[in-house]
Amino acid sequence: QVHLVQSGAEVKRPGSAVRVSCKASGRTFNRYIFSWVRRAPGQDFEWLGRFIPVFGASDFPQSFQDRVTLSADEYTSTAYMELTGLTSEDTATYYCTTEDNSSGFSHIDYWGQGTLVTVSS
Amino acid sequence: QSVLTQPPSASGTPGQSVTISCSGSSSNIGVNYVYWYQQLSGAAPKLLVYRNKERPSGVPDRFSASKSGTSASLAISGLRSEDEGDYYCAAWEDSLTGWVFGGGTKVTVL
Predict the structure, then answer these.
(1) CB proximity A64 to B under 8 Å
(2) What tens digit of pLDDT does each residue of B52-82 get?
(3) Residues B15, A115: Cα–Cα separation, whole Å
């Protein structure tokens, strides 16, 4: 059983950046794949990308490639998502999730509680 | 417009069955596994079904799922009040190279 605890709500100005943290427990660190998903009001869940700590590698959809940085710290078992160039359209609840690829087919298995990011001037 | 299409709502009385559909395309559901998540009143989403029809341990067998072609469905039998919440389908999208989700179906137990 994986447990993900995210940092608290943020209010940011347009043009600034936000960093959300996600403390993970319940799985050997090298087995983690951290995937980030957001949901804006009235919109579908949207995948922002994933970070694979054992390879130090990230995967992003083209729409977020230039604005998202993902990382993780093995010593604190914490994953991070930084989103730059914020606009009002980035107002959303951001979720940290883990992926399980033990079967060879990866899927999102656990979700954090979500972090509300509000972008407003 | 959602990449995966779900009906916005479904309802039933306790004990009844409810089925939720999820329609995709040849670049997502048509070639990849479907996953279902349950989100109960503001809690974090929880994995309900993986690889089209498999249930994680702890998920009751009242929940069953299937896939055919570019569509999938989730059935809840013996509906209970605690099943009330939002249900989402998801699949890997080959053309976008990323996860895509349905818009969600709100299940109401009357």
Answers:
(1) no
(2) 999 999 999 999 999 999 999 999 999 999 9
(3) 36
